[in-house]
Specification:
380 residues; alpha/beta; Rossmann fold; Dihydrodipicolinate Reductase, domain 2; seven-stranded mixed beta sheet; six-stranded parallel beta sheet; 9 helices; binds NADP nicotinamide-adenine-dinucleotide phosphate
Length: 380
Amino acid sequence: MRAPAVSQHHHPLTGGATFAPSSKTSIRGRSNLAIRMGLKEDAPSLAIVGVTGAVGQEFLSVLSDRAFPYQSIRMLASKRSAGKHLTFEDKDYIIEELNQDSFNGIDIVLFSAGGSISKEFGPIAIDHGSVVVDNSSAFRMDENVPLVIPEVNPDAMAHIKLRSGKGALIANPNCSTIICLMAATPLHRHAKVMRMVVSTYQAASGAGAAAMEELDLQTREVLQGKQPTCKIFKQQYAFNIFSHNAPVLSNGYNEEEMKLVKETRKIWNDMNIKVTATCIRVPVMRAHAESINLQFEKPLDESTARDILKRAAGVVVIDDRASNHFPTPLEVSNKDDVAVGRIRQDLSQDGNHGLDIFVCGDQIRKGAALNAIQIAEILL
Ligand SMILES: NC(=O)c1ccc[n+]([C@@H]2O[C@H](COP(=O)([O-])OP(=O)(O)OC[C@H]3O[C@@H](n4cnc5c(N)ncnc54)[C@H](OP(=O)(O)O)[C@@H]3O)[C@@H](O)[C@H]2O)c1
């Protein structure tokens, strides 16, 4: 059994020196994948691009928690981090600057360093025969690129094989889309969603390690009566909420909202599905919340919906009306499962054709690193 301990010169999320991935387990308990898989001689060689970032650090945590088999890992980031040391599973690594030769002999590359890095280096990794799992939005809507949530549409990547002599790229969907569809898909399979209205409450972590540090700093500053430092966001974040910082488009939607609209259509392979969204940043450190209103083609009562969600992989139901206990970002932070509650009939729709649900999910984990590594597991 490999020791699941990660220590690093500086952990960007905590500012501290170490963190322990073994504390990050599923709400339902650790995956039995960890038992099934061990270190294999023929295990893939991995590279992580953006290993020092919020998602990059979580990749390490998830790899360790799931005992993902690997021969070697190349730790890649920018020039700023090159030469720094990182300890993962009792082994010392030196972080390397990403360059054109970074992918020699690499089977799987996990990218999380922003869209421009994926656009520039993704094709180079593919040319080297690597399979890329990309966390950025750069290739998500490319019709030749599978956009995959393993619990929802694993078949979309069925044609992609490791070490086939041909590189390939698989895109990880946007974090809000993943969290939404983890809850909505089991219901969609049963009663077919016609229209979906999503309102998000998105955490600082979705904007990376520096945004989390800014929320922490601003909170202290405001409590001390100082002017808050606004570098990542243009306005005060602590003790405030605002429309998501993604660019606003000519149709009035911002890019984050349009990702929910377009990615849902692609993942569900249904160009007619009606989706609208309003995305809001809230001063929560980690994990997104979403209010989702669904309209179905077929009737679906709330107790059937609750049963379907209880049985759904990667979903946990927290729906205790008596004690007013429903999902919260804090409760799902560092957890694998997406939590669903407030499951109730939409009174404004006739004949059991509408439901309201409230969903929380750790978007660094299921919304990014975990989903990407589940994709990599399909390749094994
Ligand atoms: N945070 C989330 O919840 C989330 C969810 C889904 C998808 N994503 C996507 O994942 C990506 C990373 O997000 P994040 O939140 O992890 O950001 P982050 O915390 O700001 O980390 C950015 C990472 O990219 C690296 N990087 C920056 N410039 C680079 C360069 N020129 N060459 C190589 N590496 C470079 C950084 O390395 P240095 O430390 O050396 O600067 C760092 O490791 C983004 O595309 C984001 O949209 C994030």
